[in-house]
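Researcher: Go.
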Amino acid sequence: MRRLLSILSILLISLLFLFSNVALAQDLTAGQHSLVKGERVERTTFEYTYRAQVINNGADVSNFTAVVTSTSNATTIVDGTVTFDGIPAGGTAFSIDTFTIRHERTIPFDPNVLRLEFKVLATIVETSPSNGEGDVAVTRETIIRLSQPLADSAVVDENVLFAEFGGQRLSAQIHISPDRRTVTLFYEDFLPASARVRVTLIGDSLLDINGIPVDVDDDGVPGGTTTIDFDTLSLTTLSGTSVCGRVFASELGEGDMNVPLEGVTITVDGAEDTLRTVTDQFGNFRLEPAPAGRFFVHIDGRTATKDVPEGAYYPFVGKAWESIPGEEVNIGTIFLPLVVEDTLVEVSLISETEVTFPDAVLNENPELAGVKLMVPADALYSDDGTRGGMVGIAPVNPERLPGELPEGLEFPIVITVQTDGATNFDQPVPVCFPNLPDPVTGEVLPPGAKSALWSFNHDTGEFEIAGPMTVSEDGTLICTDPGVGIRAPGWHGTRPGVAVVDGRIVIFDPRTGELLWHAGEPNQFPIAVPTYADGILYTSRGYRAGPYMAIRLGGEGDVTDSHVAWRMEQNAPHTPSPLLVGDDLTLSRRRGSD
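Model: Structure:
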């Protein structure tokens, strides 16, 4: 026994020396590993099991694994993967589980034969619909985005991902994006209306690029099972319930008069054959009966029949409307921009495709030179899985869109991305906007200034921030930052706002784009979902990495020490959405359980 304890002590010291002197990813180093047990498995062979301790000398780290390997036949790895929950900057933590090595003691132990590599666990970044979401259109797909790519060998089939209603599975096709970060469930039939749908994802056999099961339930342990529950809209109609409005061209006609669009078809999503109407010669329409409450429609300008130039067309637009049961609601005027001839170009399946405005647009608007959309190879696809197609961009007057912009959101220009039918991008598509004068101040953002890409989410019917943008060195363009881009065809604009840069909370002047102040340290898991009250900005990071901060407005430069009223480092929700009610601040989890 004494000899066994002596061997154990030597191995423990050796392991400490090895791990503390190897440069580990993300500034992680080993601490005092805890020996759990040691036992003889053969006459000269012993197994040693440790619980690993890690010291974090860098930024906050959340949900990662350590993989131990050996280059010697005398020292083999029995179980070389250990998992860790979040570790704040400067903190320490023990692994949730243990690692075990087996050593043939007739050969001197050499700690240099062991290698330790840290890898962040893959988790679910976002789902659409989100868990607990209501008013979901029956035509909507389910999208699951991951923090890391899946392994090439990973199989996602009906045993791993499926949807159910009333205990019965719904027929669907599963699509994995080329970068293997996004999994989409396309339903072969419309979702049932007025229904609770449950999507289940099982992660135990779903390996990420590091060969580790995806932590789908966000408990810091590879694998697990998660569910996404959402409620679909009702398509029930009620007598006397109707919606009316009118459709005009975005471009003015002679005498700066509105041009009505005749023959535009309007259909209710999920009931296209029965709930539909067509605009008359004055652009007027009336949908009766209409579903009671909130519902989604598509306005098909491609069917317009009067005064449409040869080779041009008006686009196909999705909208969310809301009726009042038993009454008629006038939703106002819908403007559709003309997509001129030669706007659409074929995108490549093997290389990046640059999409610009056609010559006819640039001749009339030379300030739009250089504006472009860079579609990654094989990024465009249809709901039925068909790859490729045509993509084009067209400029739109922000005051003459299919719907009004939210109050306070003013763009100098809106760019609509159109296709010949496909409605999905596998990857964020980089885009450059013209750096035009602000519609309120008349000022132009200086080179290097930050802004934000705003995109209209047709699934929710709202404009949302897609990510940060930066003004080019010559000041002519505003381009999306690496990893940021357009996620789906539709309507997009740029406007400064709250952003996350290198994981810090950064505030820009909405008039000039000038950096006002920033707070917090660099963080690899940024999620900016702020709320504001009484001079305090309550904001968050993500993936339980922290910190979650209350920041007093004002100041210049780095206000981390001077203006942060309080901060919570750990144990907050995975994807927080701060909600302030009175004096109570609630951080809602992605799954809606907190």
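Model: Helices lie at 2-20, 359-364, 560-563.
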